[in-house]
Amino acid sequence: MKPMHVIACLVFAAASLGAQTVVIVSAKNPISKLTKEQAAQIFLGQARTFITGGAAEPLDLPESSDLRKDFYLKALNKPPAQMKAYWSKLEFSGTGRAPKALPTAADIVKLVGENPRYVGYVDAASVNTSVKVVLTL
Amino acid sequence: MSKKSLALWAIALNLAPFGALAQADPGIRFSGFGSLVAARSSERNADFTLNIVQPKGPGFSRGTDFGSDSRVGLQVDLQMSQRFSAVIQGISERRHDDSFNPVLSMAHLKFQALPGLSLRAGRLPLAAYLISEYLKVGYATPWVRPPVDLYHFNPFTYMDGGDLGWQTNAGDLSISGQFFGGSTSAKLPVTGEAKVTGKNLGGLSLTLAYGAATFRSSYTRMKFTLDSPALDGSTGPYAALRTLPAPFGGDPALADQFQVKRHNLTYLSVGFTYDPGGWFLMAEGARKGGDEDQLLNNTGAYLTWGVRFGAWTPYLTVARKTMDSPTTHPNPIVNAILSGSDEAQSSYSGGLRWDMHKNIVMKAQYDRIKNGRTSHGALINPQPGFRTGEGYNVTSLGLDFLF
User: Fold this and answer.
1) Smallest CA–CA separation between A92 and chain B, in Å?
2) Does the ipTM surpass 0.95?
3) Structural domains counted in chain A
4) Does the CB of B358 have a partner CB in chain A at under 8 Å?
């Protein structure tokens, strides 16, 4: 393989790795893995604890975020309008509230790292040692 | 100060020490929802209505009616602490007196005891049917209006009382339930004005969610009273049943049976939705039961199927309402009381939802409705020339929005 091709492959690999959406919890959280179904339930408010029994609270990125759109399409097969309709049912019946939204992936990583109750989704490149990846989408 | 507001104050005072101990995450949020809908009915000798609370609608009273399905709701969410929150919601829509005076539809405190266990007290939505709790949020439902075949009868949308909600998981199955109790009331445009109340109200609901499938069932029972000066007065039919000699139809036992005073009323609903993303199916059957009286027992059901093409969602609905009680009676006075209470109908609807903007959807819907042979269905204010058992169309165009 010619060197140029190797570089092209590496660049491509890095780009696709960077585009990967991952679900993270705190490094302090005892769980090591979430299934797509478990992550979906947490982000729909249909599961409020981890299987270990600890409280689970999802965190969102802003509505304008492409990563957010990508996460809900991959994890739930739902575009933004359907998620909006879903939460409007719960919010206007007083039974639930959409996840708290933070401005950037760095904010999500920071808060998730500090508190084992939170679950977030970020691009793989934003991950640091304070958090662990429990699901790759 | 009423007992109700005293109870609310007692809860509010208790809240302070708990709130101070809990992890604070306070905040206040204002939001709202609304619909602006124009509806036309081809039956010009009667008015089409969304529910039994409305006094007028498209058809006879109005050609194109912008009021029957239009509304606006405002909500304030208060998060006092990690465990305590409060919700206040007001809705302005067409009422029994044809006004749009706002109604307080929610005002309650919520205590989140555990992640999966909460207690609420105050004014809560009454979860009698599958979509009762968000019935008025057009954005959240597929149709221009919930199928009248099922949603026409229930005049109650909220209750004053409390509930206990719980939520748990078994593998990929999410199980949640609610026990509720309290009382409710509403005003109706029955020969002037009537008041209906539901006391000793209690019920439960159970929701199972598994992937794209959701099953929900709920049961509600109450002691129901209909207070109507026209019906209850000394010149009304019940007075006639109690005082007239038997040959003229007098029969006090029938007055006790048919006059609706603290009668048992039950709602049972079984609903199912399947929504894998590209399409959805939604079905519900519900029965209104209880004592055999002026409020005839009936069963309603619908099935809606929709397919999503990007921002466009065409949908089809078939629905039906059947009467489970006789709609005639050998006694002439009771027969007169029951006249006009047959609401059997069947309908086919087709519509299109367009998610035109992130908080605004446009919907167009066409309904073909056929009334039962002796039924007026969802139509009121019959005029000379109106005939039962006929078919008619309702055409609607509207916007649903969130803010």
Assistant:
1) 6
2) no
3) 1
4) yes
